[in-house]
Amino acid sequence: MKVIVNATVVTPHGLINDGTVWIEQGRIVCCGAARELPPPPADAELVDAEGLYVAPGFVDIHCHGGGGHWSYENPAAFARFHLKYGTTSILPTFSYNETEEQIIEGLRKVLQAQADIEAYGRAIAGIHMEGPYINPKYGAITSPIRPVNPAEYRKILDMAGEQIKVWTLAPELEGQQLFMEEASRHGIAFSVGHSEAAAETVLDSVRHGLRIGCHCTNASGTTPSPSRYAGTREVGVDEAVLLSDDIYAEVIADREGRHVRPLMLQFILKAKGVDKVIIITDAMDGTGTKDASVDVNLIEKNEFSPPQEADYMLGGSLLTMDRAAYNMKVHTGADIVDLFKMAALNPAKVIGIDHETGSVEAGKRANLLFVTEDIQIRKVFLDGEVVHIYNR
Ligand SMILES: [Zn+2]
């Protein structure tokens, strides 16, 4: 048995001062204030947290790459990279930029990496398909975006249906209704993104399993309605996401406030409440290999780009979850308990793994972090095993 002592434990119900966490066979046996628990068994290995916060490992449900790797090309190295920054459950995220052949090959690699439990397969919690059936008007790079194709999605579902946890789509496209009916049999949480569906269409999709607003206020639009008058603000995808209690809102909190301005982050948090916001990275392959002083990934405009003055547009981020959570704290003032709800428990809930991970609670996997108040990672545990120590 391992017993973490001298910790401030971050739980969904608040902080536990002078806390301890007991770990056996990779799982949390119990946690609580030292004075309320019996002394640790004499043969237990004591791990001194030195007063740091002990928090749940991050769950990132939207992440394309990192450490120089695309998630679908080298999933094990990708998972290993993000593990160092505290992400103990990750969904390798395909985008709308891959061809069918690339998707099939990528799925094969991810499934194989996931099965390798001795390596970092245990940190791969499933798969996120961000497309390819999105609205080309809202894509960063648009070439292989394609209409809904039953032959293609059935092949994907047959191959990896049980492991696909999130599928991002534009509900306004033809064929989406049938797609959602078929894919929902695999328990997939649908995410509305790269879309300009009418708010009514978004809300109606909840009954098919729509649960997520993909990177809220990024790459989403509105359908002009006939009732629109000058000076009247139209409602669209984001407003529907903000309105529905059944839909979680993903946010990319970069330090520059480029994806979501701090005021908008505050607004989203206020509208959704802390139990319905999910912090994501939407990280690209160059994360960790490029200039660490910026969080956004800029790409050159293309013919579909929205009219704007800049020559570049946003193409995901260079974030890791520790930085994203810290930025959320800076931009919204959220406290550490709420940050870990948004960065661990809520995403675990929406993909149905919260009975296993997402919070520091008895019975769950001992996926734990030692962190400072500013979410700097000091130690990472995966299933009770130390997999990373920050070298000061
Ligand atoms: Zn993405």
From TrEMBL:
A GO molecular-function annotation: N-acetylglucosamine-6-phosphate deacetylase activity
Record InterPro entries: Amidohydro-rel, GlcNAc_6-P_deAcase, Metal-dep_hydrolase_composite, Metal_Hydrolase
Domain Amidohydrolase-related: 53-387
Pfam families documented for this protein: Amidohydro_1 (PF01979)
Keywords annotated in UniProt: Carbohydrate metabolism, Hydrolase, Metal-binding
Family to which this protein belongs: Belongs to the metallo-dependent hydrolases superfamily. NagA family.
Coiled-coil region: none
Protein name: N-acetylglucosamine-6-phosphate deacetylase
Origin superkingdom: Bacteria
UniProt source species: Cohnella soli
EC number: 3.5.1.25
Metal-binding found in the keyword field: yes
PANTHER family per the UniProt record, alphabetical: N-ACETYLGLUCOSAMINE-6-PHOSPHATE DEACETYLASE
